[in-house]
Every structure is written in structure tokens, then in C-alpha cells.
Amino acid sequence: MATDNQGNQPLEERRSESHKLIKELIDTRTQLLALYSRLAGSKPFGDEIDDDLAELLDEFCETLIDYTADAHFRLYRFIDENKEKRKAILDLAEKIYPHILQSTQTILDFNDRYFQDNAEAPADGQKRRFDTLEADLSNLGEQMAERIELEDQLIEVMISSRQQRTTEAV
């Protein structure tokens, strides 16, 4: 059985684990996009939203943060820890990572503003306001679309690079 250059985990086992992690990330992304679609389909939003929509918004925010964390742990961890050695992945990561970080900040800002546990209630005791939710959701959707496109490029390079390494090792 072929092992990596350091004699660590067998390549086939690492490849299988990586494919599993990527599949889980894509599954979370699919759930996120379904929630985004439901939320966007609920507009127009007023200054206040009902309890059902607030619950949907909180579920969306939770899934959004889960997806963002998963992407960092599943796609970028080895790059961040300087453990990634494949040139094609490093070259692409250098190109796209600033855009990923920008979208991550947009995601965190959205979550801080709209997730129930984070959102600041108005001082006068009124309900949270949602008068900018439509514009913020639209901006977030644009950022997510770009991020997904960039992540897909990275996933493609990772998979093709792994397939190439496995073929060379056999």
C-alpha cells in the first residue's frame, strides 16, 4: 500500500478521508443554499419579522457559520498550517484566499447582526429591526456565490491533484 512521503497515513486512506470531508462540506453547503432560498423567498421584509421567520433566520445563521467553519477546517487547514505541499493548490490558494477571507468577514458581520443570540435588542425594549435584511441578504448571496465558485476551484484542484498522486504512486 502506498504511503505519503513522510510514511504517514496511506495515500488511499487519506484520499478517502478527504473525499468524505469534501462531501460533508458540500452537503452542508446544499443545506445552507436551501435555507437561503427559503429566507430570500420570504421577502419583502419589514422593520419587524414574525417568529417563524426569525426562527428560519436563526437556523440559516447557524448553518452559515457551520459551513464557514467547515470550509476552513476541511479546505484551508493544511494551507493555514503550512502543511500543504502541492504547488497547484498553493498557487490557487494564494490567488483566492483573500476573497475567501473577505466573504468570511461578510458572513460574520451578517451573523452578528441577525442571529438572535448575537443581535442587539434596541434599548427601548422594541423588537429587533430588520429594515436592512433584504439588502444584507442580497449582498451575502453575492458573496456566497463568489465564495462557492472559488471553493469549487480549490476542490477541483485538490481532487485532481490527489488522483494524479495516487496514479503516480501505483
Describe the structure.
With 170 residues, this protein is mainly α. It has one domain: Regulator of RNA polymerase sigma(70) subunit, domain 4 (Four Helix Bundle (Hemerythrin (Met), subunit A), Up-down Bundle), CATH 1.20.120.1370. It has 4 helices and no strands. Helix 1 (11-40) packs antiparallel against helix 4 (133-169). The longest helix is centred in the C-terminal third of the chain and has 37 residues, at 133-169. Mean pLDDT is 83; it is low at 1-7.
Helix and strand run = HHHH
Q: What's the main sheet like?
A: none
Strand content: under 5%
Helix content: over 70%
Mean pLDDT: 83
Number of continuous helical runs: 4
> What is the number of beta strands?
0
Our count of domains comes out at 1
What general outline do the C-alpha atoms trace?
Answer: elongated
Low-confidence segments: 1-7
Helix-strand category: mainly alpha
How far apart, in Å, are the first and last alpha carbons? 9 Å
What CATH architecture do you see?
Answer: Up-down Bundle
What is the CATH class designation? Mainly Alpha
Layout of secondary structure:
Layout: H1 11-40, H2 51-80, H3 87-114, H4 133-169
Keywords:
Four Helix Bundle (Hemerythrin (Met), subunit A), 0% strand, mainly alpha, 170 residues, 4 helices, disordered N terminus
Task: Please sum up the structure shown.
This protein has 170 residues and is mostly helical. Helices cover 74% and strands 0% of the residues.
